[in-house]
Amino acid sequence: MQAGYASGLFFITPLGDLFRRRALTLGLILFTTFMWLGCTLTKSFSVFAALSYMVGLTTVTPQLMLPLVGDLAPANRKAASIAIVSSGLQLGLLLARVLSGVITQYSSWRGVYWLGFGVQLLIFSLLWLFMPDYPPKNVGLNYLSMLLSMLKLVFKYPLLVQASVNGGFLAATFMLYWTTLTFLLASPPYEFSSSIIGLFGLIGIAAILVTPWTARYVIDRFHPQLSVILGTGTVLLGQVIGTYAGKTTVAAPVLQAWFIDLGISTAQVANRAGIYQLDASSRNRINSVYMLSVFIGQVMGTGIGAKTYAVGGWLASGSASVGITVLGLLVALGRGPHAKGWLGWDGGSSFKLQTQVQQAGDEGMRAEAGQSGPATGTTAITSRVPGATRLSASERDRDGGQSGIVEKTALA
């Protein structure tokens, strides 16, 4: 399933830049639902493995929703809007961890899959009823060119690389913690049952619910990199507490879970808020690059966690997690908020956003006509976006008039 998900991130998620997203989303969910039913009913391991790959391949619809939010949200609420969707995604992951622990204790593994099948049907029904349609963003772009353009984006935007590497390290430390936490809590001095261990997932819910507020009052008001640095530092604090006090008191891994979930949620939302401003027509491909790095980090964290715990126990695995988080913090600090190159803090170290008031409608026509005086029916829109510039009339025409004011940003 993990291999299928990685394939879906590369081959399926970029299609959001090419096709109408309602049809694409509904088609993927419906296909996933039937594959999930097959996993539930089959008695053949080879068939189960093949169907699991297909499920992972098409279970990338949340990664279509996040760039869509980046398209629709106003500039001064973009991070808060992304945080709401991202929090929903993380909340689902945590609830799945809790429910799977409870269900497997009182039922068979098929019970988990039947629950997943029902949830897929519910999601499909709700989206069929309420999801509007959106026009394709890149008419005339072919599939092969779209995939090749993802590589070009990596070399074009240093910010995308910085955010992706930071996100990968944070994902690694997240998976390392949750992989080894079960070993810690199931062994002395705790010896908790699987259902109690599963309840640890509930700790992160409070942290996740805080993220939209953090996005609203911090990420949307300052340069996203500030929140990336603060979020990564919060993760590091949690790792230090949990690693070196985790076998002394159960409060240590509880605090560790809280700080990790809060810090990663904040940093991930900030990373996305930054990279989604690089190129509005390529947001799905940009998101694919970012999520591929996150996926690689998850795989890396799981492997490192299992190996280090087998060799040196909780202290060894935790120390590895601390080291990985430090690397993520160095990446966040390695390039300033206004830097144009790959490294350094050229352009200044201020995290304040540029505020630009743009006039539309009659004011623009008066300027072209050489007239002066107040404009009637003019709307003043304040765009608090890093590097925001006004688009020319021809660029606004190419945008298709989908928004009154369009931001062209240059974070890289």
From TrEMBL:
Q: Which domain of life is it from?
A: Eukaryota
GO-annotated molecular function: transmembrane transporter activity
Check the record and name the InterPro entries matching this protein.
MFS, MFS_dom, MFS_trans_sf
Query: Which positions, given as ranges, span the membrane?
Result: 23-41, 48-68, 80-99, 111-131, 143-161, 168-186, 192-214, 226-245, 257-276, 288-306, 312-333
Supply the PROSITE patterns for this chain.
MFS
Q: Which GO terms describe its cellular component?
A: membrane
Region (Disordered) location: 360-412
Where does it reside?
Membrane
Q: Where does the record place the Major facilitator superfamily (MFS) profile domain?
A: 1-340
PANTHER family membership? MAJOR FACILITATOR SUPERFAMILY (MFS) PROFILE DOMAIN-CONTAINING PROTEIN, TRANSPORTER SCO4007-RELATED
| Name the record gives this protein | Major facilitator superfamily (MFS) profile domain-containing protein
